[in-house]
Write a structure and sequence with these properties.
Chain B: It is found in: Mitochondrion outer membrane. Chain B: One of its GO terms (cellular component) is mitochondrial outer membrane. Chain B: It comes from Caenorhabditis brenneri. Chain B: This is Bacterial surface antigen (D15) domain-containing protein. The structure holds 2 protein chains of 2 kinds. Chain A is an alpha+beta fold. In chain A, a hairpin with a 2-residue loop joins strand 3 (62-65) and strand 4 (68-71). Chain A has 2 domains: 10-82, Glutaredoxin, CATH 3.40.30.10; 93-118 and 160-242, Up-down Bundle (Glutathione S-transferase Yfyf (Class Pi), Chain A, domain 2), CATH 1.20.1050. In chain A, helix 4 (93-120) crosses helix 6 (141-159) and helix 5 crosses helix 6. Chain A has 10 helices and 4 strands. In chain A, strands 2-1-3-4 form a 4-stranded mixed β-sheet, covered by helices on one side. By secondary structure, chain B is mainly beta. Among the domains of chain B are: 9-96, membrane protein fhac (Ubiquitin-like (UB roll)); 161-338, Beta Barrel (Porin). In chain B, 8% of the residues lie in helices and 52% in strands. Chain B is built from 4 helices and 21 strands. A 16-stranded antiparallel β-sheet of chain B has the order 4-5-6-7-8-9-10-11-12-13-14-17-18-19-20-21, covered by helices on one side. A 3-stranded mixed β-sheet of chain B has the order 1-3-2, with helices on one face. The radius of gyration of chain B is 26 Å and the shape is globular. The chains are: A alpha+beta, B mainly beta. Chain A binds chain B through residues 48-50, 52-54, 56, 64, 67, 69, 137-138, 141, 144-145, and chain B through 210, 213-215, 217, 221, 224-225, 227-229, 231, 266-268, 334.
Chain lengths: 244, 434
């Protein structure tokens, strides 16, 4: 990674956000966009059907600066920080550690909840996951690829020992994440006070996705409704960075 | 069969044009599972032989055809006089049917350093009418596996060379010219036959291929943009006139072949690709052979999507423009070659048979190749500007009509900065050489 080069000709490659991207991918793509908007760095979004293959390590989204490719939320934040654009200068070390913990909570627990719903819940798989994954392929790939992706995703869930969880237990895990984030947010404008950080970008990414996504089951959104400050936060960030 | 002495056909060949003959019977010895109707189709023409000369000639053709279509492993025609009449003859075919089942195991190391293990099994003349089935399964140490399952059915008949075939396979390939790997899962249906009184060879292929391109670490972004799954459905049609005496290294004769591939009804790929091959060979004094080949390809994208990097035209390598890396002549991005929309390559060869005369040849060549990009506005101009030339001397080894091996010392003569040149000694092996 060459952080010394100029911030020129910067493109963010994402899947087709409206028709293709799955919840956690959508959340991460939105989070990166929000983060870059928070830093006011210019970039253009390019939607491609094969971003996971364009990406050198299958992680999305993919940020391209000249010939440098950076993939995933954490690496992109790191790269921007190395260029001297840092959103956390006002924070103490403890606050930074808290923020990192929040990010990790979202990356792991929230993403796993989303994975469980998309791949393990049969009706969601049939009505949402399969059509979205298959949308960029012709038949018969439009059936084969979702099937293969599902097999891989279920193996991952089994590795985390989530394959035997019930939907209620998954709901409890989601509730745990929302409760922690809601408590951290409190009545503040952002998670750590009046200024946004990368954790806010990621939180917005996931919250916006969960609020707007159309799923055959509503338990996660119902749980989320118990935390109105998270919903207000999402509306606020959307207003700030996406409505000009 | 009763004990009799038979003589070679030469003893009476062309000495009996006026001797009338009536074929009274055709008998087969050694048939176990070949179907009767298949044999009848193969030899019924023999009954029309009017003279002994014709009969000798036709019996020989029939015996050869039985082997070539895969009905028999070995067939010899013996012509006997009939005990009943003076002009009557009986043709006996001594045949050996193909083995009921063949199987093999092989371990090897592939070109990209991966060890593999492969199993294969096949059966000739499965239903007794020349149908063949082949299968193979390869397992590599890295955990990849490939398979190939193919079936072929010949159409039987007097001197008929046509068949239908179907193949299903999964294959893996490394493509060093654009630093990527390719997985292919394919189903291919084919027909091959002849047109216009058997003068023109005709081939039709229907391809359905699921391709997964995986760009490697060093691949240019332009290659990455094409990575992922694509589906290609295409129809290929080829016609050819071939008067060469040997397909792999001809000493006389010409080949003219025109092939067209159309993709676009289903799947992601939509293009028309035209390929013209011309080859000519002629003997010179002192045993020298002069040969020349030319191949021109043109690709036209249909629809608004850019033609996929896997469908483009490539040049370079031991089989066409020697002295350049395999498929490295084309539009470049970083170290990757993105291919072109049109290519023209020509090679002039001078061969001199060594010992053994039909296998080993001294070989000198001059090769040229040019390309035009997929978006070229002026294709002819680009072809002129992008010319690469190389020359070399070496040895060419031909094993029957199965494969050709070349050992060349090559000098690239015309090239530009950034070309992947491989001057010096190199070995090329394969079937299709320009």
């Amino acid at each position: 990674m060459n952080a010394a080069q100029d911030w020129e000709d910067v493109s963010l490659f994402t899947p087709y956000l409206n028709d293709q991207a799955l919840m956690y991918d959508f959340a991460n793509c939105l989070a990166v966009q929000t983060f870059l908007r928070m830093t006011s760095l210019p970039f253009s979004v390019r939607q491609r059907p094969n971003v996971e293959f364009i990406s050198p390590n299958a992680v999305i989204p993919l940020l391209k600066i000249n010939k440098t490719l950076i993939t995933g939320f954490d690496a992109i934040v790191d790269f921007v920080n190395k260029k001297g654009v840092i959103l956390t200068t006002h924070l103490s070390e403890t606050q930074i550690a808290d923020m990192r913990a929040n990010i990790s909570l979202m990356h792991h627990l929230l993403k796993t909840v989303e994975m469980y719903i998309l791949w393990k819940h049969d009706e969601t798989y049939a009505k949402v996951t399969k059509p979205r994954v298959g949308s960029v392929y012709h038949w018969p790939l439009s059936s084969i690829i979702p099937f293969m992706r599902r097999r891989a995703a279920l193996t991952k869930l089994a590795d985390k020992e989530w394959d035997t969880k019930t939907m209620d237990e998954v709901g409890e895990q989601a509730d745990k994440v929302f409760r922690a984030l809601s408590a951290q947010l409190g009545t503040q404008k952002f998670l750590t006070g009046d200024l946004p950080t990368e954790a806010d970008a990621l939180l917005f990414g996931h919250m916006y996705t969960l609020i707007t996504v159309r799923l055959p089951l509503t338990n996660i959104t119902n749980i989320l409704k118990k935390y109105p400050n998270l919903i207000d936060f999402t509306k606020r960030v959307e207003q700030l960075y996406f409505k000009q | 069969m009763p004990e009799k002495t038979f003589h070679k056909a030469q003893t009476i060949r062309e000495k009996a044009p006026g001797v009338p003959s009536i074929v009274e019977a055709v008998q087969f010895h050694g048939v176990r599972c070949t179907k009767n109707d298949a044999l009848v189709k193969e030899v019924s023409e023999l009954y029309r032989s009017k003279t002994l000369d014709e009969l000798v000639h036709n019996s020989h053709l029939a015996a050869r055809h039985l082997q070539e279509v895969g009905l028999m492993d070995n067939a010899v025609a013996l012509i006997d006089t009939s005990p009943d009449s003076k002009e009557g003859y009986v043709v006996n075919f001594l045949v050996r049917e193909p083995k009921s089942f063949t199987a093999g195991v092989k371990a090897g190391v592939s070109t990209n350093g991966d060890a593999d293990m492969s199993f294969n099994a096949g059966k000739q003349s499965v239903g007794g009418r020349g149908e063949s089935i082949r299968s193979s399964y390869t397992y590599t140490v890295r955990g990849d596996h490939c398979f190939n399952l193919s079936a072929m059915k010949p159409f039987l008949g007097w001197q008929k060379y046509s068949n239908v075939s179907a193949a299903f396979f999964r294959s893996l390939a490394h493509m060093p010219w654009n630093q990527s790997d390719l997985d292919e899962n394919a189903a291919i249906l084919g027909y091959s036959g002849q047109l216009f009184d058997k003068k023109v060879l005709h081939e039709v292929k229907l391809n359905a291929i699921w391709r997964t391109l995986r760009a490697g670490r060093d691949a240019a972004f332009s290659v990455r943009e094409h990575a992922g799954h694509t589906l290609k459905f295409s129809l290929e049609n080829a016609i050819a006139v071939d008067t060469r005496d040997r397909p792999i290294l001809a000493s006389r004769g010409i080949l003219a072949r025109y092939a067209q591939e159309y993709a676009g009804v289903f799947g992601d790929a939509s293009f028309v690709k035209n390929t013209v091959d011309l080859q000519a060979a002629a003997p010179l004094p002192f045993g020298f052979i002069l040969a020349a080949s030319l191949q021109a390809k043109h690709l036209k994208g249909l629809g608004d999507r850019e033609v996929h990097i896997l469908d483009r035209c490539y040049l370079g390598g031991q089989q066409d423009v020697r002295g350049f890396g395999l498929n490295t002549i084309g539009v470049k991005a970083d170290a990757s070659c993105l291919g072109g929309g049109a290519t023209v390559a020509g090679v002039v060869h001078l061969y001199r048979p060594l010992v053994p005369p039909d296998m080993l040849f001294a070989h000198a060549f001059l090769a040229s190749g040019s390309y035009a990009s997929v978006h070229a506005r002026n294709v002819v101009q680009q072809l002129q500007d992008s010319q690469r030339v190389s020359a070399g001397v070496g040895l060419a080894f031909v094993f029957k009509s199965i494969f050709r091996l070349e050992l060349n010392y090559t000098f690239p003569l015309k090239y530009v900065m950034g070309d992947s040149l491989i001057p010096g000694f190199h070995i090329g092996a394969g079937v299709n050489f320009l």
